[in-house]
Design brief:
Strands 1-4-2-3 form a four-stranded mixed β-sheet. It starts with a helix and ends with a strand. It has 300 residues and is of the alpha+beta class. Helix 5 links the parallel strand 2 and strand 3. Among the domains are: 61 residues, no CATH class; 109 residues, 60s Ribosomal Protein L30, Chain: A (2-Layer Sandwich). The longest helix is centred in the C-terminal third of the chain and has 21 residues.
Amino acid sequence: MTLKIKHMVPFIALCTWGISSASAETSNAYYHDIAGGYLKTIQGKCWRTIHWTPDTAVPACEGDADGDGVINQKDQCPDTPEGSDVDAAGCVIETDQDNDGILDKNDKCPGTPAGTAVDGEGCALIGDADNDGVKDNLDQCANTEQGISVDSRGCPKDSDNDGVYDSRDACPNTPKGMVTNLRGCELKASLDLSNIQFRTGTAALSASSQTELDIIANTLVSNSHLKFEVAGHTDSTGSLSRNIALSQRRAEAVRSYLVKKGVAADRLTAKGYGPTKPIANNAIASGRAKNRRVELVLKR
């Protein structure tokens, strides 16, 4: 046995001397044949030299079960998924290329712009400005009033399609085609718009009145076969001619707003009656307040 080793050593040395293509580290770590291949032991393993260390080992000789380029002997994370970027220990490098706090392997929206707030999947957080539960990018009815129940589009629910939101509807399930008032109940001859307010002595609508008229417009649009007169009324304070002119301007202001909100212009007329049709006593303040009003009168 000793005699064989003495004869082999010069041969091995000669083979190693003949390598020129391998790097010094790799060349010194293993014995090679003349063709540059690794000499193998009877067990089929690469024949190491005294210069071998784990750092000079090569996967082709030492084995790399998960194919990550790190030999099994040094691999602290065997079974790394194919194609993963790994560190020197063979473990996946956890990267977050867009710096959004979500690792790339979990990031459903890579490349998020810097400073963007993201959810647990790395996608930009989208707000809900009116707090109706529907994200702004899906909300077809932005700025819904607080407390109003909405559908999947973010629009107020109107189950009976009478133009009155469910949250305001005092008469749900009204029959199809029935004309309703602001409470969702059957409209008789006229609709008192007592909540419509104007600046004193002018035809300028208040902000709250515009909100109220938005609801009225929905009701009218839902009943497109009906026509109405917008009737303006005042109290008896001041001259008759002045009050008639003021009530006319106010009636026209309401009509114009409703038309702007989608009600066909040919369905509405405007008429100012001044103080000629009181519904309360003009001698007292509360009576005068009731007489200052706008009505929608159904045209038969």
